[in-house]
């Protein structure tokens, strides 16, 4: 089911931002500020325009109100990579704690930072996404942890390029 969540570029971008929100507590203002810093304010001038972009995700409740064009996808990629870069110390800390928990056969949700992240991600997912797209509790945790690890790479050198390649690769129909 996790693969199904990541098969659409629109869904992947929205989930990536949701993972960042879940870990860092950032909100739409931080995304809009980053857009302005990257000179992308024309595409995301306010909360409404950002909301419309994120509503393009096929996983969202009420989705389909806005198609995502290449420039908007590019902007979301740049913003996602920049936010991941900016929050790299916290992302590294979370991934290190995940590695430690895994090595000790400890459930990730029992580690404070990871438990908070998983709870936030789960709550955001349940609030924002359609019930028909919701994976199981374990599937949702797996998705959140996969996105956390992805964030580590998107915030590093070449993160924007890595994110683009991942978006394209995951959205490619199987069998190609």
Number of helices, counting only DSSP H or I runs of 4 residues or more: 9
Main β-sheet description? none
What Rg, in angstroms, do the CA atoms define?
15 Å
Helix coverage percent of residues?
55-70%
Strand composition percent: under 5%
Overall structural class, as computed from helix and strand content, comes to mainly alpha
**Anisotropy-based shape:** globular
Which runs of at least 5 residues are low in confidence (pLDDT < 50)? 1-7
Write down the overall mean pLDDT.
88
Total domain units: 1
Element pattern in H and E: HHHHHHHHH
Measured between the Cα atoms of the first and last residue, the distance is: 20 Å
- The number of E-state strands comes to 0
Note down, in words, how this protein is organized.
The chain is an all-alpha fold. The chain has one domain. The protein is built from 9 helices and no strands. Helix 2 (9-24) runs parallel beside helix 5 and helix 2 packs across helix 8. The radius of gyration is 15 Å and the shape is globular. Mean pLDDT is 88; it is low at 1-7.
């Amino acid at each position: 089911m996790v693969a199904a969540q990541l098969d659409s570029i629109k869904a992947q971008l929205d989930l990536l931002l949701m993972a960042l929100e879940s870990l860092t507590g950032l909100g739409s203002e931080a995304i809009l500020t980053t857009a302005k810093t990257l000179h992308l304010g024309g595409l995301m001038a306010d909360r409404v325009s950002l909301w419309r972009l994120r509503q393009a995700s096929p996983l969202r409740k009420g989705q389909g109100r806005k198609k995502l064009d290449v420039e908007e996808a590019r902007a979301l990629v740049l913003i996602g990579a920049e936010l991941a870069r900016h929050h790299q110390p916290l992302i590294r800390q979370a991934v290190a704690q995940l590695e430690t928990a895994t090595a000790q056969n400890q459930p990730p949700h029992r580690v404070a930072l990871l438990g908070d992240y998983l709870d936030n991600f789960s709550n955001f997912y349940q609030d924002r996404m359609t019930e028909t797209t919701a994976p199981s509790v374990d599937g949702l945790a797996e998705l959140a942890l996969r996105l956390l690890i992805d964030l580590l790479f998107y915030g590093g050198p070449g993160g924007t390029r890595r994110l683009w390649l991942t978006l394209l690769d995951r959205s490619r129909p199987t069998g190609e």
